[in-house]
Amino acid sequence: MKILSVASEVFPLIKTGGLADVAGALPIALAGRGMQMRTLMPGYPAVMQRLGTVEVVATFDDLLGEPARILATMHEGLDILVLDAPGFYDRPGGPYTDATGKDFVDNWRRFAALSFAGAEIARGVLPDWQPDLVHAHDWQAAMTPVYMRYTGLQHIPTIITVHNLAFQGQFGADIFPDLGLPPEAFTVEGLEYYGDVGFLKGGLRTAWSITTVSPTYAHEIATPEYGMGLEGLINARAPDLVGLVNGIDTAVWNPETDTHIARTYAAGSLKQRAVNRQALAERFSLVQDAGPIFCVVSRLTWQKGIDLIAETADWIVEQGGKLAVLGSGDQGLEGALLAAASRHRGRIGIVIGYNEPLSHLMQAGADAILIPSRFEPCGLTQLYGLRYGCVPIVARTGGLADTVIDANEAALSARVATGFQFTPINAEGLQHALRRAFKAYNEPKVWARIQNQGMKSDVSWENSAAHYADLYSSLLSRV
Q1: Nearest to 391 by CA among 401, 399, 383
Q2: 425-453 per-position pLDDT tens digit
Q3: Which residues are annotated as a binding site for ADP-alpha-D-glucose?
């Protein structure tokens, strides 16, 4: 089976969030099932600099206003197709924002071009390779099934995966004439969304199947609370919607072989984590005492519940805990956390930015990871925590609810607990979960059982890849 994946970021070439991890891990997980997945992604400067030998496999004289090429290459086991369009992607900043953090004003054109190229690959523009099925990810690739629907390729099965419904790619109606689509595409059955052009809305309307990254999130987005204005469409497409929990790359995230941590260890040698705990404390200038270290590895945003951590930080210190935070985002939240660190030197440490090796050390050295997200389609950091014996303390929402078994009395008695869940999602709810965590931490045998049970969890792509393979097969059977 030949599958084209279209994504705006792919680990290890470029990453801003969990989308990149999924786009990088799923092809490898599927390869063992007799499926060839090629991934189309933009040629950002950071990507172009990391490419090895490439082959030009297609050219466009005018791709929505810019010349472009498709380059084929292999990178760390991934079969990559890079859309080399300097007019769209060769610029300072990140994949979506400029050096000041503002969205590029032409993001609509940059990612419409990516989707158009994906549709052309589906049409057969590459020599000797045409996909049986196309899998698009999030709003940046959501126009792929739209172009396919309106340019005569509706017979090829398409899937769109929603990693976060909050980001929809909504633009003014004035861009529509430049998208290269027929007039009938700008209707409620296509791209029209409250008078605007909705990239994600169009993908949700035109794709054969819709997936989200956890079963609970699939249920949540059908409600007004989480549907972000698209709940009506989601409910209309309910028969075609399925939630599949993400996995993680268990070769990259493996405490037994991880080169980013101070001491490798396994579930049977948890005492070795003490070396990583010491290294983590030194990195964040935390005092070396017996109190638990809670870590946060996250975008510092309201959605991620970081305001709840800022509100609870003083209380954590009062209870004898310590806090290590890695992330960046909202300046107000960054400031609140930095102020807390200033008040509690040696008890709270902050690193603003993102550092992949440091995130590994934090999972290997911290006692618990805090994830108080107000909504979380899947989440990956709790899966890393489970893998590393860093006990997750999570809000009861989305994929967090699906992947962490709460340490209530029944779960503790049955020895199946892997972390702590809380609701309501507010400071009081978080404190209640932390009280339970402090109590368990002060009973070393109980805490070790929670750690060990978490490390036994299957957080690989094995099960999810099997579900995706079944979904692909079921769609192809309808052709």
Answers
A1: 383
A2: 999 999 999 999 999 999 999 999 999 99
A3: 15
